[in-house]
Amino acid sequence: MARKKQNIVLERIRVEDYAAEGKSLARADGKVIFIENAVPGDVVDVQLTKSKKDWAEGWPRQFHSYSTDRVEPFCSHFGICGGCQWQMLPYEKQLQYKQRQVRDNLQRIGKIALPEIMPILGANETKYYRNKLEYTFGTKEFTKEKPSPNFDLSDNNKLSESAEVSPSGRFRGAGASPSGGFRGAGFHAKGFFDKIVDIETCYLQAEPTNKLRLAVKKFAKENDYSFYDIRRHTGFLRNMQVRLCTTGELMVNVVLGEEDKNKRIALLEHVMQQVPSITTLVYTINTKKNDSLHDLEPVTYHGKGFVMERMEDFQFKIGPKSFFQTNTKQGEQLYKVARDFAELTGKEIVYDLYCGTGSIGIFMSKKAKKIIGVEMIAAAIDDARENAALNNLSDAVFIAGDVTKICNDDFFAEHGRPDVIITDPPRAGMHERLVKKILEMEAPTVVYVSCNPATQARDLNLLDEKYAVTRIQPVDMFPHTLHIENVVQLKLR
Which of 34, 104, 258, 292 is 20 to 30 A distant from 150 in Cα terms? Predict the structure, then answer.
């Protein structure tokens, strides 16, 4: 162990395994070390950022040898943009680690009896799988120094020379360009609200997404449009949302930090000229200090103001502020699992909690007697009702409000008690009041769809009072990232 100015560096540590949230794991001096940006099999010097009695956290200051599991990342921004953390791993390895993540979380946090976990459902398409991306235009550049690629992947356990990472914060530069005129378009850097990773080519969404972003950036720079400075809250060009559906419909929402009619029209006309395949072009004026659009009204400049997406035979109307599964094709696989776990015969009343725009309930509707969707966000319920009408569903009711307050005896008398409960909460999991309400309702079957197996495991522990976990199916929605979806079937004891 080397020390310098009270900074602790652990030397030549062999990374042993993956831990939660995409960090790797090693052991040294009786401690478990959690390491960012390393792969099991790497040998690294670890700069500790946190050190406790039994565990520590750190990052690889220097690589001495690379894991034989590593592959060459396909994106030039890998290691700088934080969007695809696992490109250096073969997809099969990614799936193995995600499967293990589900198992470890359910066992370690859930502490309940579990059936055998079914093999993870991987994605057929590991590039260009997102239907929605949001780009940010900004004045502060983020660059991060990556380890020197002094290795040959044909023999990637050896280095001709150790690859060293900058010890001073790992950053080569994190501000405006030396000329003071940096204007970039890309993604927010991980952990930095004001820094932008300027993107040339992104592989998350199919074209024309890169053409759109580059065309807008080039036009804005050539015409001296200001880019948004989030610290000063000034600037014209702020964000751009691109939604590309499997139907081929394309919606673009250009978000501006101030209104300037002449500039706005010139920009939007240029966008239409450069990308004539746009079916809906909207703009939003956002003069607030945050990027949220929920309380703003986008204005339709071209087209119908929305796009249509399909899953199986169902169609869904998606507006600029609508929520929809970000990976349509893999989302369809996720919904098929949920429908299978619901074990519907056509006689069941299904309660869809956290129903959002109603997509899961609508997807199950053909095999259910009735769908009852409940959601706190009123605008989402409006979308759910419209989607139900689009699909000619007469036996679907969507209600805005708090499940714990709505689902009482009067509600059950009007709509019937649930035979199946579907719950698909946000990453934080279910509120404890909702867990108690589910225990009170005593539906014979509960299907829990989760984007965070850790909080899912916590909730399953609480539900264990009355429910047994009977089926578990992980689904990979986001290749090359550490994120994993998991579907669990529970049966009333």
Answer: 34
